[in-house]
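Appendix C reproduces, verbatim, an entry submitted by the partner laboratory led by Prof. M.T., so that reviewers can inspect both the input and the predicted structure.
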Amino acid sequence: MPETLQEDQFAKAATRHFHDADYLHTDSRLPSADHLYGFAAECATKSLLLRFTDVAIGPSRKPEVVDPADPEKPLQFGHVDQLVREVRLWAHGRGGAALYSVLDGDLRAFKRWSVSTRYSDGTYAQADMVERRRDAARRILRVHEQALLSGKLP
């Protein structure tokens, strides 16, 4: 059985996280929905980075780029809240500028998202914020789907 490419694994995870988030959102379980919308946006973005930029999977099996200041030191991409900055800084080369311009506004919805909220009581998750992040994740996944179908960024 052939090994699944990491970008395909990220793509499948993005869809799974988004559908699970929608299920929880419908049940008014906003903190968990918000968390999964963040992971959906993160996975779709990482899939796009791997497909349309010079980002590659490193030995740690995480997306990374070579640090121009120190070519021996790879820079790994973090969670969605960090991708706002990282995509701008490191998604250059093949397709990077186009990807940044397409995703920047939607990634900004996750600027204050944090993976550590999984340990919180959930009171941070306000309906309007979760709705903004849901819409942003949906648009990122739509860009991802269109790019996969056409083979290029919108």
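Residues 111 and 133 are 10 Å apart (CA to CA). Additional entries are available on request from the coordinating office.
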